[in-house]
Amino acid sequence: MKSGYTAGIIMKAFSVAIFLLLFMDQTANGRSDKTTVIKTLGANILLPCWNTAMNVTPSFTRWMQNGQVIIGRNHSIILTPSSEGHLTIMYNQSLYINGLALSDEGIYLCDSLPHDNNTQTSLTLQIVYGPGNGITDIHPATTLSNGTLIVHRGSTVLFNCSSWSYPSQRLSWGFQGVVSRNDSLTAGSGSWLNFRIEDIQPTAQGNYICRAQNSVSQKEVGWSKELLVYYSPEKHPECQWKIGKDPSHVQFNCSWFGGYPSPTLLWGEKHQVPSSQVAGQLMESEVTDRLVVNLNRSLLFEGQTLKCDGHHPMISTEDEKFCSFTLKSPYPEGEPLVTALEGTNITLTCKESSSLPPALTTWQRTAQQEDVVPSPKYVLSRQGPTFTLTIVNITKQDEGFYFCRSENPLMVRELEIYLTVKTSSQYTGAIIGIFLAILIVGSGIVIAKTVYSSRDRICLGNGFERMEEDREDVLSLVESDEEVFPEAVPRLPPLSLTNGHNTTTLVQIHQISSNDHEDEEIVEHPLQLEHTDMEELVTF
C-alpha cells in the first residue's frame, strides 16, 4: 500500500513537469502586454491574469517576478504555497499580494494553460512610499505651549526640513505672512532642505511651510510652523494724567508702545519710608499697550508716589521698566497787598508751579468769590506758571478782595490779594509834606552856610568870654544922641601883666536911638597894645 501511494505522487509530479515544459514553450513563442501598477508600501494588491482562453477553466497557472517563478498553481492543487500567506494565486489566476514590501517591486508575468492566442500579460509593480516622517527644525527659538516658535528680532534663524519618500521626493520651503502669501523661499531634491534668515525682523513673522512631494505618486505633504518675532519697546513707559470736568477726579494713563507682544502694565502705589520702599496696594493690571485708571480725591494725598511698571517677555525681571510721579498740592504765590491810583491800570500777579498734577488756576473777586470773566475791564493772561489779572481804568468800586484760586485733584488753595484804590486828592497832603520837607532842608543848608561863613566872629565871641574869666578889662562905649564931651571919656590906664605878654583891650560901642533905643548895633574892635607904649585906645 505504501508503494502504491508513492507511485501516485510520482505520477502527479510527472504530470506537473510536463505542463511546465509546455507552458515555457508556449511562453517563448507568445507575446506580452505590459502595464504599470503603482501601489503604496504596505498595501495589499491583486494582480490580474488575462491570458486564459475565454470560457475555459485553466488547468495550471504560474506567476513570475523579474523572470523568476515565484508561485504556480495546479488548479487541483497548489504547487508552491505562499510564505505565510504573502502570495496567493486566486481561482481566477490573479495574484494576491498581502502587505507589499520593497522586495515585491518588479515585473510580473502571468501564464495559464490553455493559452488564449499565445498571449501573456506583463505587469510592472511600482512600490511607492511617502512623503513621510517629516521633521521641521527652526532654531534658535523658544517653543510656547501651543507649539508656536518665538525668536528675537535681529537674530540669525536657521530653517531645516527633512522627509523620507520612495523612490524620490522634492522638498520646498514656503512662507505665509501678513502681507505676502504663499511665497516660495527655496526648493530642492534630497532628504533634507535648509536655509537661513539673518537679522530677522517683524516682517518675517508668519507661517513657514515645508512641502514634500513624491516624484512618482505626486503625493504631497506639508508641515507648518508658526514663527513669531518678539521685540521689546525701546523706551520706558510714559505716565500722563488728565483732569476731568470735576478737578477732584483725575485719570492716570500709562502707555508703553513699540513692542511685540503687548506688555503687561501695572498701576500701583509706592510709599517712601526711611531706608526702604514699600509697595502699596495694586490698583490695576492688564496685558495692554495702554492702561488707564480713574481716581478721586479720597484716594490721593500729599507726597503720594504713583508708579506704572512694565513687563515684557523679552526683558528680564531684573531690568525694571517703569514711570512714576509724586503728587503735590498747589501753592499759589504773589503780593497780598496792592495799591493803585484811581483812573490807572493795575496788574495782579499770581505764580503757581509746584502742583502735580498741574493745578487749574482761576481768578475770583469780592468776598463772595465771583469768577472773573475776561472782558475789556478784566484782561486775563498766562505765561508759563505765572497768571495775571489786569484791571483797566480802576475806580473806587474795584477796591476789595481778589483771589488767585488753584485746584488740582489733591486740594484747593487760594492766594488772597487786597486792592486799595486811592483818589488824586489823597495825594495833596503828601505833596505839601514833601514841599515843606524840601523847604526845611533848604533853610537848614542856608543857615549852615551862613554860620560857616561867620565862623571867625563866633570864635572871637568865645575868646571874649575867656578873657572875662581871666579878669581882662572890657570897655563898653555907648553911642547916643546926647552930647558927649571929650572930658567925659576917661583914659584907660595901661594894663600890665605879670607874664609880660601883650594886653588886648576890647571896646564895644553901642548906638542907641534917642526915642525907643531900637536898631542896636554892636561893633567889635579888637585893639592890640604893646607892653612898651601906651596909645590912646578910643578916637571919635
Word description of this protein:
By secondary structure, the protein is mainly beta. It is about 15% helix and about 45% strand. It is built from 3 helices and 36 strands. The strands form 8 sheets. Strands 1, 3, 4, 5, 8, 9, 12 and 15 form an 8-stranded mixed β-sheet that branches. The chain has a 6-stranded mixed β-sheet with strand order 10-11-17-16-13-14, with no helix packed on it. The longest helix is centred in the first third of the chain and has 28 residues, at about 1-30. Keywords: Disulfide bond, Immunoglobulin domain, Membrane, Repeat, Signal, Transmembrane, Transmembrane helix. One of its GO terms (cellular component) is neuron projection. Pfam families: Ig_3. This is V-set and immunoglobulin domain containing 10. It comes from Oncorhynchus mykiss.
Largest sheet: 8 strands, mixed
Q: What's the overall average pLDDT, rounded? A: 78
Number of helices: 3
DSSP strand content: over 45%
N-to-C span:
223 Å
What percent of residues adopt helix (DSSP H or I)?
A: 10-25%
The rounded Rg comes to 67 Å
User: Which blocks of ≥5 consecutive residues have pLDDT under 50?
Assistant: 1-32, 273-278, 463-490, 495-540
- Helical/strand content category: mainly beta
Quaternary status = single chain
Number of strands: 36
**What gross morphology would you assign?**
rod-shaped
